[in-house]
Amino acid sequence: MTSSARTGFSRDEADLGALTGVRSGKRSFYPEYVRSAERLENAVRALDSISRALVRTAEGPRELVEAVAHAAAEHLHAEWLLVAVADGALQAAQPRFLVLWGDTLIDDERSLPADALPHLHVLRARPWEAEEDDPGADIVRVSMTLDGEPIGGIAGLPGSGVDVADTDLAILRVLANQAAVALHNSFLLHAATALRGKTERLSEAAERQAKELAETQQRLIESMQRQALDDERHRIARELHDSVTQDVLSAGMTVELCRAELAAGGEHAELVDQLSAAKDLTGHAVERLRAAIYALHNGTEEPPGSLPVLLERLSSVHLPSDLTVQVRIGGKPVPLPGEVEHSLLRLAGEALFNTVMHATADEALVRLQYLPERIVLSIADNGDGDPAQLRRTLQLTAATDLAGVHRGLANMQDRTHELGGTMSIRRSELGGIMLVLDIPLPLRRNGKAAS
Predict the structure, then answer these.
(1) CA–CA gap between residue 269 and residue 113 (Å, rounded)
(2) 205 phi/psi in degrees, rounded to 5
(3) What is the value of pTM for the model shown?
(4) CA of 265: how far to CAs of 81, 257, 260, 280, 358, in Å?
(5) Exposure check for the chain: N or C terminus, fewer CB within 10 A?
(6) Residues 6 or more apart whose Cβ sits within 8 Å of residue 395
(7) End-to-end CA distance of the chain, in Å?
(8) Given this structure, which CATH class describes domain 20-191?
(9) 140-146 and 324-330 as β-strands: parallel, antiparallel, unpaired?
(10) Rounded CA gap, 411 and 396, in Å?
């Protein structure tokens, strides 16, 4: 063979060696090629194990460490395999170390294989020495790094007959370093999940507090409005009592003096009759003013449970003397919110006022029935009112604006609807009008449950 031929053969052999990692003569070329191919196959299997191990971060840190230990032990056919995180590194990572011994996973130092314990101490206390010192006794040890800093490592005892090459150590380093990143990411994932849960709970609590604050603010506004209305009612009541009522009484006394003088003279009989009628009108006006003053003074401050008493008082004291009113209570009275009792009292007072003003009645019956699921308040009279005509008037008033005329019935209907009830107009057994207010329980006020 020529020199050039020999030179060409050597170059081809060198290239093949560079490609396969084999540097040998003809006699050892094939065995080393086989060993190199086996290592390459092991490397591929190890990388596959790594990829399967490192995608388990969502399962939690322990499952991740277990998967890494199994992958490394399988690659080395190890009798035991240790994965450890250094003290002070990845402080939230758990477990801090794990040993795979046969098929058993150990995280208690007291149960470790005796020859694994020294390597645990090195990886936990001095991880930078994992590869600087010779571990001895055929032990394989590589460091685990994160951001260029050693934070633990992997150590293991390969199975008998396993020849550990540099490629095996490189694979273990890749596995260890990727495990460090995966541990850190797993902690961040679980921390973020916990933080999100806490944020959601705080958000729900904030929403509840905001709702409670809004409700409290609404109640405060309503309370302030009621207080303002109460103050204004009391002011109007004082004005009516101190000025208007006194003026009407004075006018009545003047009319009576004039009537008495004319009657004593025996003349102007027609004028005397007119003055008598005027006197009666002023008397009625005084009675209505007293009823209005009573209603203005006795508002929402009345104690709950006083509705039957208030109805008796209204019928016996605050109405004209020529209207006889009976009050009948049926069922067992139940305490009601003061605002609701006030509304029912105002409804009864308005109905009786209409009886006095429009029905020419001298007898009225107020019936209050407490039933299990509702309250029925009815006001009946023996006057000359026409139920059909009143129903038509109510419909007309509800459909059009009559500039305040005939608004009494419409206002009563609105007040009844605010309590969640209905109002009906019927013919009474006394011969006149019967107004029936049917209020369901639990009572409602302005569309909300009364409390």
Answers:
(1) 133
(2) -65, -40
(3) 0.38
(4) 134, 13, 9, 21, 36
(5) N
(6) none
(7) 115
(8) alpha beta
(9) unpaired
(10) 13
From residue 34, how far is each of 24, 40, 57, 170, 341 by CA, in Å?
13, 10, 36, 20, 101
State the alpha helices, DSSP H only, in 143-268.
166-239, 245-265
Distances (CA, A) of 272 to 247, 281, 405: 22, 14, 33
Yes or no: say if 108 and 144 are a contact pair by the CB < 8 Å rule. no
Residue 53 corresponds to which tokens in the numbers above? 């191990």
CA 266 from chain centre, in angstroms, equals 83
| Cβ within 8 Å of residue 125, ≥6 positions away | 86, 87
DSSP 64-109: HHHHHHHHHHHHHT-SEEEEEE-TTSSTT-S-SEEEEETTEEE--G
Question: Which residues in the chain are classed under CATH 3.30.450.40?
Answer: 20-191
- Give bridge partners of residue 438 from the DSSP assignment: 376, 422
Q: Tell me which residues of the chain have a pLDDT lower than 70.
A: 1-33, 35-36, 39, 42-43, 46-47, 49-61, 237-238, 240-243, 245-246, 249-250, 266-267, 279-280, 283-284, 286-305, 316-321, 359, 398-407, 443-451
Pick from 373, 371, 380: nearest CA to 348: 380
**Cα–Cα dist 397/22, whole Å:** 108
Where in the chain is CATH 3.30.565.10?
303-451
- Cα within 13 Å of Cα(440), Cβ side: 9
| Rounded distance between C-alpha atoms, residue 423 and residue 417, angstroms | 8
Whole-angstrom Cα Rg for the chain: 50
C-alpha to C-alpha distances, 219 to 10, 226, 338, 379, 414, nearest whole angstrom? 99, 10, 15, 33, 22
Is the Cα torsion angle 250, 253, 259, 261 positive or negative in sign? negative
Q: Which CATH architecture describes the domain 303-451?
A: 2-Layer Sandwich (3.30)
pLDDT, one tens digit per residue, over 77-92 is 888 999 998 888 877 7
CA distance 289 to 131: 105
DSSP string for residues in 408-422: HHHHHHHHHHHTT-E
pLDDT for the residue numbered 399 = 67
